[in-house]
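Bumping with the actual sequence this time:
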Amino acid sequence: MAAPSMTRIGVDLGGSKIEAIALAADGRELARRRIAAPSHDYARTIDAVRGLVEGLEADLGVGRARVGVGTPGAISSLTGRIKNANSTQLNGRPFAADLTRALEREVRVENDANCFALSEASDGAGAGARLVFGVILGTGVGGGIVHEGRVWAGPNAIAGEWGHNEMPSRDLAPLADTRCYCGRRRCIETYLSGPALAADHRRVATHAPATPLDARAIAALAQAGDDAACATLERYFDRLAGALAMVVNIVDPDVIVLGGGVSNIEPLCAEVERRLPARVFSDRVVTRVLRNRHGDSSGVRGAAWLWPA
């Protein structure tokens, strides 16, 4: 299968899987590969990424495509090594330099939430917007900022990391005291991740089942009219709107795009957008809150988009 010479390959380095995709200059998907991620083995992770890239190049009959990689955590501007990754084998490692050496070409590496935001800003739900804030609501809570088609990572490589700010509590139902894996208390992530939504339901619902429900099951119960599940989602919508209002007050994006498993809850975007004006410091709020267009593929597509067309 022939492919344009300017093929870009994006790699999404997840905790359980590594996925790679080849895109044409116009964003068309040319090929895709996915493998299980090596568990806690840095050297095998480098080898796995190299194998995926070389495999796609062989599939397409092209050589030395431009490669972008989305990773958990970020590259420290101080050391050039990965920091803040929940895939802990990456932390403290010169991942970009090692992968550049393995592939014998320049490799662009960016935080996975930034890749999600870039994908949705390039040809997804935020396409055409000047400033896009991309939100991941999944096992954790992440975020990324794209301004005029370019990722803004910031001098500390943490721009968009709203999940580790303290959860705002003004005008909200009382918050349980939580502790985050980062060592801090009351992080936004501990209230708005998928596991956090489930934990809130277990704490509050008077007839919670012995087997814990996940966010998807709670949403299904709410849709069926279950009062406790409906109340859990109401608290979640309020908390998400409050936390995103803080982002709007600081960044003032044109569009907020929601991703991750929790974003699949059907009324989420409309409910959060409806609640924003009462919480944002403005007489008029035109920021849209939209569900992602590319689903689970957004991160890997965004990694490819690290190279402009």
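The tokens above came from a reply further down the thread. The CA atoms of residues 241 and 275 lie 6 Å apart.
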